[in-house]
Amino acid sequence: MSAPVLSLRGVTRRFGGVTAVSDVTLDVESGARHGIIGPNGAGKTTLFNLINGDLGTSGGAIDFLGQDVVKLPPHRRAALGMARTYQIARTFPTLTVRENLVLGALGLRREKYGMLRSWRARRDIGALVETTAGRLGLEDRLDVPAEDLSHGELREVDIALALVSEPRMLLLDEPAAGLSPAERVHLRDLLRALPGELTVVMIEHDMDLVRSVVDRITVLHFGTVVADGETAEVQADENVREIYLGRSGRA
Amino acid sequence: MRPVLPALARHPRATRAGLAITAIVVFILVPQVTNDFYLSIAQSVVIFGLLAMSLDMLAGYTGLVSLGHAAFFGISAYVLAYTMNHGAGPLTAALIGLAATLAMAALLGVLAIRVKSIAFVMLTLAIGQIAFGLAVRWTDVTGGDNGLAVPSRPSFVPGAIDYYYATLVVLVVCAIVMRLIVGSPFGLTLRGVRDNEERMRSLGYTVALHKYLAFVISAFFAGIAGVLFAFFNLYMSPSAIDFQHNALIVLMTFTGGLGTLWGALVGSGIVVFFQQWLSIHTPRWITFLGIFFILTVLFARRGVYGSARYAIRRRLDQLSGRPPLDRHGVHALPQEDVALQEADV
Which residue of A has its CA nearest to B176? Predict the structure, then answer.
């Protein structure tokens, strides 16, 4: 079996006396569709922050593509091919959707320091941006400032920002949260159509979406891994049912 | 108006070029059709317009409002005056002044970019006040309150009108370069930094480097304005870099419209008008400037130039049949869904 794209060993993060993420060990294979589930406050988003470097770890090791990244700042991890989205969409509100996506596309290119030619002159980046916007159904909104978009559209821009950088691994933090049923269907189709070589790790509460996209699930509870395995077997797990539904006697 | 606006809408580039040429022609005509008084006003607008535009790259585009920008203007002017008084020719002195500005910006930039928003304002305020303090106290070099005389202008622009045209050329060249920078990939990254630093990091940007470059470039253009000022005024004193002066530069960029570049030029016109024209008629000119600023903030949030441009663009959108932008997009969620998500967060 090939070496995992992402490998966590004993990853821990404490906030004062609270251990938000405790001794998490986890491997994500290349091209995997990996789901992370767990109740609110289980430490899922904190785990993402540790993986991409928005937060530093209190202990443990994080390897990405065989390289130890635990000490690297987020922009260096992004340069290695790690892209993420946020639970509350993080976009550039005063910039148009097109400008947002151009920033996403430029992040890993040397041209980001170019000062004397218009960014509009880069036809290849323009084409990439339009293709990506099309995949998310944003092609009619390209010249609208992000602050004028609906909630669902902002989530799509956030995902497009991550995709347009052509990453090796995509971290999606509750991509379906707050989307309408129609938007969820669109999101599911989009996730299914992602290239097979792209590794996807997704935090999600919508189990329908998880089931239709993900092939492996890790369950977090109070910051620790309580189950890890194929989607079906994790869903059948007694512990997991207890965490989600309460003790069977009382449920 | 009716047939004119749609025609303008169809040719945005020609419209912009037309406006720029009109502005340049007006500036060219000032010495021909008016007297020395208005020439001196136009001269100030050119110099402080350049200074305010340089601040707009930092404050408007990068979101780093500096209350110490006049320090870089002052460094180049003082170094120019000092080196000329020690035997350097005008052009050599100007180059040394610019090099000194660049060196100080490169040094202070390391400190300045470590902080953001209000902390940046306070830090640059401190830098500005230290520069002012040095200008007052370091009398051996700066002449203290007496200031330093600048012995002469470059020999090819001896007269006030010749010099005015030379500064106009410098302004146009600098404006073109600044416009290229803000429209470039790098300029876009600055707006990204202003809007969301954290997101820029996770997209792979070394945010500190972008802020640092913006700081140094902005200071460099402020230094050019300082050179123009030294040769115009032929005298440099601490009052040119005191707190009031720093505040006036910020006021120019704000009243014109942050993040518009040309707005800074308009704002400089407004402030210089109050400062030099109205002050003849009333000693309370600064009160009127204050009232004007309050009215701008209340009724033209994007600044005088910024708001006008916004209003015209909306009108053009309507005329060309494009639907005006609503604050919330087409498939906005029903209210209860929104409430649910917010509870979830």
Answer: A116
CB A20 within 8 A of CB A187: no
Of A8, A192, A158, residue with least CA distance to A84 = A158
3-state secondary structure of A25: strand
Quick check: A93 pLDDT over 70? Answer: yes
Mean pLDDT of chain A: 90
CATH number of the domain enclosing B222: 1.10.3470
Q: What is the pLDDT of residues A34-50, one digit of tens each?
A: 999 988 888 999 999 99
Question: Under a CB-based contact definition with an 8 Å cutoff, are residues A149 and A89 in contact?
Answer: no
pLDDT-derived band at A2, boundaries 50, 70, 90: low
Number of structural domains (chain B) is 1
Residues of chain B neighbouring A107 (CB-CB closer than 8 A): 200, 203-205
3 state SS of A152 = helix
CB pairs under 8 A between A and B: 142
Half-sphere exposure of B192 (CA within 13 A, CB side): 34
Mean pLDDT, range B235-261, rounded to an integer: 94
Q: Is A204 on the interface with B (CB under 8 A)?
A: no
Mean pLDDT, rounded, for A121-143: 93
- A167: nearest CA in chain B? B203
The per-residue pLDDT for range B293-315, each reduced to its tens digit, is: 999 989 988 999 999 888 887 87
- State how far the alpha carbon of A181 is from the alpha carbons of A152, B89, B333, in Å: 11, 74, 11
Flag whether B171 is in a domain. Answer: yes
Cβ contact A201:A170 at 8 Å: yes
Chain B residue numbers with beta carbons less than 8 Å from the beta carbon of A39 are none
Residue B198 forms contact with A (CB below 8 Å): yes
> What would the pLDDT profile of B120-136 be if each residue is shown by its tens digit?
999 999 999 999 999 99
B319 domain residue, yes or no: no
**Number of helices and strands in chain B (H, E):** 17, 2
Q: Which of B179, B180, B203 to mutate to test the interface with A (most CBs of A within 10 A)?
A: B203
* Cβ of residue A113 closer than 8 Å to a chain B Cβ: yes
Task: Write out residues 68-97 of B within 8 Å (CB-CB) of A.
Answer: none
Q: Is B15 inside a domain boundary?
A: no
Q: What are phi and psi of A217, to 5 degrees?
A: -130, 140
Q: Range of B200's domain? A: 34-299
Tell whether B28 is covered by a domain.
no
Q: Are B324 and B317 in contact (CB under 8 A)?
A: yes
B213-242 residues touching A, CB cutoff 8 A: 213
